[in-house]
Amino acid sequence: MTLRDWDAASYQRVSAPQEAMGREVLDRLELGGDERVLDAGCGTGRVTAALVDRLPEGEVLAVDGSPAMVEETRARLGDRVDARVADLTELELERPVDAILSTATFHWIADHDRLFARLHAALHPGGRLVAQCGGEGNVAAVRAAVERVAEPALAGWAGPWNFSSPAQAAGRLAAAGFADVWTWRQHVRVEPDDPHEYFATVMLGSHLERLGPERHRPFVDAVIVELGDTGVDYVRLNLLARRPT
Questions:
Q1: Burial class (CB in 10 A: 0-12, 13-18, 19+), 92
Q2: What pLDDT shows up at residue 5?
Q3: Rounded distance between C-alpha atoms, residue 199 and residue 51, angstroms
Q4: Looking at the whole model, is its pTM more than 0.90?
Q5: I want to staple 3 with a disulfide (CB 3.0 to 4.6 A). Which of 65, 104, 171, 216 is the partner?
């Protein structure tokens, strides 16, 4: 799997909506304060910081595929977190964790069967997975706008996202060995403060990697014009599961 690096400084500026959604997910994770927890896809560490605060006697391992994101997390949290660059589909931990938190990450990963198998292996028996990612129908209007722009460099490309239905995700989690699986959709509307930067960084960064620099701004502007709206309608897929004892 080829890992994408991100513009971490830009993501930090515009990712307040992702932090808000992530904090909601964190609230579903019951913690005593002394657990070892994996943040699977830590980004710039905004939600990771809230997780660290919940674990005064615990330990947080923060993993992301983007070196720039991991550096931003280290700068934010220092030795309060063990932050590493890693591909979640190749994850190998020296010690298992008591819980896994993940927000806004799984939809960037093509192979969910392998992903869930690696996360299952990373957990202690009885350990919990609490996650949220993009689900089936996510950013549908944005995807349609990209298609209407018809950028030649994107012809034939399926796009960067893997959006599963609740039933698909539940089946894959069960096949990976998880029990007590619960999956459901949640609709969230986001109105970004800086639409161009938000779209360029959060929505279309993988698309821009396929274009020459001179096409970046015109492409983002064209997508926003085709969309006819600077708001983004998200369909979030929530996941709760447990590794059996």
A1: exposed
A2: 80
A3: 27
A4: yes
A5: 65
Largest CA distance in the chain: 55
Identity of the residue numbered 94:
E
Contacts of 39 (CB under 8 A, 6+ apart): 47, 48, 51, 60, 61, 62, 63, 101, 102
Of 233, 205, 211, whose CA–CA distance to 9 is shortest?
205
Q: Which fold has domain 8-138+161-191+233-242?
A: Rossmann fold (3.40.50)
Provide the H-helix boundaries in the chain: 8-14, 16-26, 46-53, 67-77, 112-122, 140-149, 166-175, 195-198, 205-208, 213-227
Spell out the residues 6+ positions from residue 135 whose beta carbon is closer than 8 angstroms to its own: 107, 163, 164, 165, 166, 169, 185, 235, 236, 237
Q: Please determine, for residue 240, whether its predicted confidence score (pLDDT) is greater than 90.
A: yes
- The pLDDT assigned to 3 comes to 63
- Give pLDDT, residue 4: 72
Whole-number pLDDT of residue 153: 96
> Rounded distance, CA 133 to CA 140, Å?
15
CB 143, CB 199: distance < 8 Å: no
What percentage of the chain reaches a pLDDT higher than 70?
99
Q: Dihedral angle at the C-alpha atoms of 177, 83, 195, 1, nearest 10 degrees?
A: -50
Q: State the average pLDDT over residues 207-220.
A: 97
Domain limits, the chain:
8-138+161-191+233-242
